[in-house]
Amino acid sequence: MKNLSLLKPTMKFSTVFLPVLFLVQFNLAQAHGDEDHSKKPAKPATKSSAVASVKPSILDATSAQRLSDGSLFVPKIVQRQLALRTLLTEQAELPNTIELNGKVLADPNAGGRVQASQPGRLETGPSGLPSLGQRVTKGQVLAYLRPVMSSLDRGNSQSILADIDSQLSIAERKVQRYEQLAEALPKATVEAARFDYEALKKRKAAVESSLSKSEALIAPVSGIISVANAVTGQVFDAKETLFEIIDPNRLMVEALAYDPILTSDIANATATWNQQRTSAAANTPVSLALNFVGGGQQMREQAIPLLFRVSGKSTAVAVGQTIKVIIQTKRLTTGFAVPNSSVIKLTGGESVVWVHTEAERFVQRKVVAHSLDGERVSIISGLKDDERVVTTGASLLAQVK
């Protein structure tokens, strides 16, 4: 009984405070919400993780990018890798130019042809037959041409030769008799007989040479063999070309103009073409300085031929090659002179240049350009003074996406 009395206060205390403890625990559990405490709490961001989040932007800053407005962001390091070069524009009075189609010709005073004067069979010369590219000198024997006759022609020639032999024998005996009677005969009679004898000898030699003697084919000028259509033993007809000789340092250019007034308005001229390299991207323009010789006064193919002489030594150009002739007239126009490499052609045929507006920014400009000479173009519109135009690497900037 004593023990039961002692337990009563304790039971009363627990019944009073038990609901209160349960309510406190329930509120504490509800304050944490739905958070998962099974995992370790995330650590605060360290310095290394902050640098890692910045790395993508650094990579973008070291590569060329095309911005939303069409301009390019090109960092300095990329500009050095692309070897970009710029030129400060300056407005000036430039000649008005006209482009014509031209063709390279050999100078008629420094070139020649070797043709067969009669039908014959070709024989080698003292040094063999000349080959393409071989240099020859004026008067050099290139080959021999042995005449070829039909059986009827050969029979007629042989009958003529037999008749001459008989006449020559009679003339020889006549001269011998007259010389024995020189004191009794007039001097004029003896000399006439001797002259007839000499004439028959020359006639016989001429007929014999026509039957067997070969004709020497001689180089008319000094130069390089550009055409060789000869093979030993080949039979040629009369007027057929065997060899052609040109001097590569003395060439001419013929262009066709459709304005007769142009012949009196030429100040300067340049011939240009693209020289083929190992790859299409390595093609480089080549130019030649031209001196105007004169223009024809008769239309040919609805155009007037203009003749120019190549000044100085010519580069790798071939006779018959089609080139572009840029004629500078005496009229002037206002524009900007920039290298040919600055202007890029778009797919639509428009001409554009790249302008360096800021330290790492390039803007594309549409321009109107005309060829000024073999190395420069004249930009009439699209540029302003003191703008930096890209001269080297403009084609690489156009490939930036």
UniProtKB/TrEMBL annotation:
Residues 109-131 are annotated as: Disordered. Keywords: Signal, Transport. SUPFAM superfamilies: HlyD-like secretion proteins (SSF111369). Residues 1-31 form the signal peptide. InterPro entries: CzcB_C (IPR058649), MFP_Cation_Efflux (IPR051909), RND_pump_MFP (IPR006143). Coiled coil: none annotated. NCBIfam families: RND_mfp. Belongs to the membrane fusion protein (MFP) (TC 8.A.1) family. This is Efflux RND transporter periplasmic adaptor subunit. It comes from Undibacterium seohonense.
